[in-house]
Amino acid sequence: MDDLELNKIQQHWDTLISSAISWAPRIFTAIISALLIYLIGSWMIRMIKKLVEKAFKKRNMEASLQHFLLNIINWGLNILLFIVVVTQLGVQTSAFVAMIGAAGLAVGLALQGSLTNFAGGILILLLKPFKIGDFISTSSGVSGTVQAIDIFHTKLVTPQNQLIVIPNGVVSNNSITNFTQLGTRRTSLDIGVAYDADLRQTKDILMEVIKNNQYALETPAPQVVITELGDSAVNVSVRVSTSTENFWTMNEELIIGCKEALDKAGIGIPFPQRDVHIYNQ
User: What's the pLDDT tens digit per position in 123-168?
Assistant: First the structure.
């Protein structure tokens, strides 16, 4: 190796050292700044999570929804903090943003049905059309007591003790009848009486049965209404309100009481029948 080559190597080495010396303060400053940003950002994320958690508890939000939303907030803030830190270190973040966008699009396309159920679960937990313990019926004909409301599914237990799992997308996009939320239910018991019966006497008898029922509420006032002249009977509707938990007990007692009272008064409850006339020629 001659002197010329040694001089070139020495020049390159000197240039490298001078560059390192000139860049060292900047790199050191960037690392210190990034570390401070990370520490302060982590502390802020913890504070934000605590504040959000207190707000959720103050609004009595469902525990499953609280946990899920807190996880989303935690992941979102940490991703944002990561982007800020690497930006402070001089790394171009456009590639990260593009990767995150592409991954989100791919996941969205692959899980369209699950995302629909997820959105439905969020709506149910936020709007609260029903809660655990309510007896509901859906437009698809499914009914039962709500056992659990998950992010993707709602679980019902039928009166026959059967477990029904319904996707939240189906529940949130269709009509729901909640029999429990208002606290009271009103029965509509239809009774057919014979055409030769005294209808005013029939109404008085049935109203007396209602007054003697311990579960019947006075407000709203009960009603006994003649509703229809049927094919084989005059139809009478008995309408009474009671608390939700006593509905089925009251309904059964009304059926028994009305039948016994009408039998005692000699008012018949005819079964469907037809008169057949035969003409001889």
Answer: 887 778 888 888 888 887 888 998 888 778 888 998 888 999 988 8
User: Residue with structure tokens 């790394």?
Assistant: 91
Rounded-to-integer distance, Cα 84 and Cα 176, Å: 46
Residue 147 · residue 155 · CB < 8 Å: yes
The span from the CA of 97 to the CA of 92, in Å, is 10
Q: Is pTM beyond 0.70 here?
A: no
121's enclosing H/E stretch is helix 112-127
Instruction: Give buried/exposed letters for 128-152 (b at 16+ CB in 10 A, else e).
Output: eebeeebbbebeeeeebbbeebbbb
Q: Token digits for 234?
A: 């005059």
What's the Rg (C-alpha) of the chain?
37
Distance CA 124, CA 150 (A): 10
Sign of the Cα torsion 49, 51, 55, 57 reads positive
Helix H, strand E, coil C: the string for 11-44 is HHHHHHHHHHHHHHHHHHHHHHHHHHHHHHHHHH
> CA dist 237 to 203, 214, 261, Å?
10, 20, 15
